[in-house]
Amino acid sequence: MQWLDVRSDTVTQPTPAMREAMFHAVVGDDVYGDDPTVSELETLAAAMLGKEAALFVPTGNFGNQLSLLTHCQRGDEVILGDDCHIVWHETGGAAVIAGVQLRTVASDRGVMDPAEIARRIRVGSDIHWPKTGLICVENAHSSGRVVPLAVMAETAAIARRHGVPVHLDGARVFNAAVHLGCDVKDITRHADTVMCCLSKGLASPVGSILAGSAGFIARARRNRKLMGGGMRQAGVIAAPGIVALREMTGRLAEDHANARALAERLAAIDGISLNLDDVHINMVWFALAPSIKVDGLMAALAAAGIKANPPEDGLMRIVTHWQVNAADVARIADVIAAYVTGGQ
Ligand SMILES: *Cc1c(COP(=O)(O)O)cnc(C)c1O
Question: Domain containing 65: what range?
């Protein structure tokens, strides 16, 4: 059976153009700086993200941790949202790798009050205090919410006033740009460094980008080696990354439209609660009425060839991507509607 997999945009398979590019990739030893395909990807990514230089890294998690390690000294404090990926989903790596202290700010799915960030910046030279080494923001947030540009601009202004750098966890920054109707550079200019995943909605099989100033990236290149991320003939996995940036960034609006169509169908079903205003990118979140049996719904979806994750903390998430089309989302809505309204 051909599964329709809507658990995440990380499940995306490489496109035929990506497989072709991998097959034909010219490669060399990238630790020697000899891989022309990796270099091409890094140059392209830097230009698209509006930074001087970029570095190809194995994962988004790696890129974020490499950024913390390169920006900070051990014992520095990093100010970031209490619901961000670095706090929740990176295995406590900040304590192990960069050796930094994470100072959280209340965050509503990525949106933090800039005044609360300002309050946490260490000003003065009290010998008791850690140094504020970095501020991290996330856009789009992993909840699928896009942070408004005004909030990012205000945060960047506060950071600059205090001489503190800003790192953007932009795992889905191209999705954020589509939602905001702006160029991705209009988002990244509010951060000194940015991490962006090639392997989510952009469908590359492996890899992420860390971009920043030339000096920062030179230091990050050395730290990437320290972390075990010096990859040899990496052109075979960089080649699909080039296709991801060239061809896949321009089609993300389709995924957003499909997510929107699915959300509108689901919102109309009795027994499902869904806030349409929260559908910003390719993710649809909804809650099921307590009377609906989750096991039964999951079985109905599986029987229809649909792979979905069960609800977590009462919320179910469906994610669209290039392998999900308008007919597919209509079918998902039909299966859910039939189960929820069909007396189970
Ligand atoms: C997925 C994700 C990451 C990590 O990316 P991996 O490639 O899975 O390691 C980091 N930040 C955010 C916001 C993400 O959604």
Answer: 15-246
